[in-house]
Design a protein that fits this description.
250 residues; mainly alpha
Length: 250
């Protein structure tokens, strides 16, 4: 990919979209990839965007997770992480044969459905079973491996298990950090990440990631628990909708 081949509009669009995507990430702990990639894919190859977003997600999740490390739910991490790694294997093997548009459609409908439910039911009336960590980990890990969008799955599970908004965000961002780190290793081993333009893009966009995280954090602090559930519901509707739009446009 040569710099001369890039659209001049990218210089305006990319910073704005990255700030928007990571404002959502700072608010909820997920959502940057499924908001940013569908728009930026109009200007940049997906083979470039996927490893670039893995690097940006790794850096941002590490920042959010380290800032609120004491709020991470260790019991939930212990439940879901082993199954998340099973999901990584499933994503690399079994689901690679399933067309992306089917997976995006299913995830988009699921995310929008759960988002609408969270918006109209902001108070958790009962805690769901911890056994839901098994399908949440497997499906979230598989979806994350294929196109980096495991956040809606993790959010739905943790939203039904945890009551504190900061605990939910910290735990989701830590799961995203582990997922992004694993994907980064996979991309490096396969050679997909070992290109100078990817690291150049990371350096250029990192300041806009920081701006978005700061904005999202300020919004997060000012929200009540019910408002936070509604906000995450809006994020789920937005991310699910973006996946469906990308399927229909394609």
């Amino acid at each position: 990919m040569e710099i001369n081949d890039l659209s001049p509009w990218l210089l305006l669009v990319a910073p704005v979209i990255i700030v928007m995507g990571y404002t959502v990430f700072g608010l909820s702990g997920f959502g940057s990839t499924v908001i940013s990639v569908p728009v930026l894919a109009h200007f940049l190859p997906v083979s470039y965007l996927v490893p670039l977003m893995a690097l940006l997600d790794l850096a941002s999740a590490s920042l959010v997770g380290s800032a609120s490390r004491e709020h991470v739910s260790k019991p939930e991490m212990k439940r879901i992480i082993p199954w998340m790694f099973v999901g990584f294997v499933v994503g690399v093997t079994l689901l690679k044969g399933v067309p992306d548009e089917y997976l995006r459609t299913a995830l988009g409908i699921f995310a929008m459905g759960m988002g609408v439910y969270s918006i109209f039911n902001p108070t958790v009336l009962r805690t769901i079973s911890s056994w839901w960590s098994v399908p949440a980990g497997i499906v979230g890990g598989a979806i994350a491996t294929i196109f980096g969008a495991g956040g809606p799955i993790y959010s739905t599970y943790l939203g039904g298990r945890l009551k504190d908004k900061t605990e939910i965000r910290a735990t989701i961002s830590t799961l995203i950090s582990i997922s992004a780190f694993t994907r980064a290793i996979m991309y490096a081993v396969t050679g997909l990440m070992l290109h100078v333009p990817i690291f150049e893009g990371f350096v250029v966009l990192a300041p806009f990631v920081w701006v978005g995280l700061k904005l999202g954090d300020r919004i997060h602090v000012g929200l009540s628990q019910q408002q936070m559930r509604r906000a995450i519901g809006c994020v789920l509707v937005l991310t699910g909708g973006s996946l469906l739009v990308r399927v229909f446009v394609a």
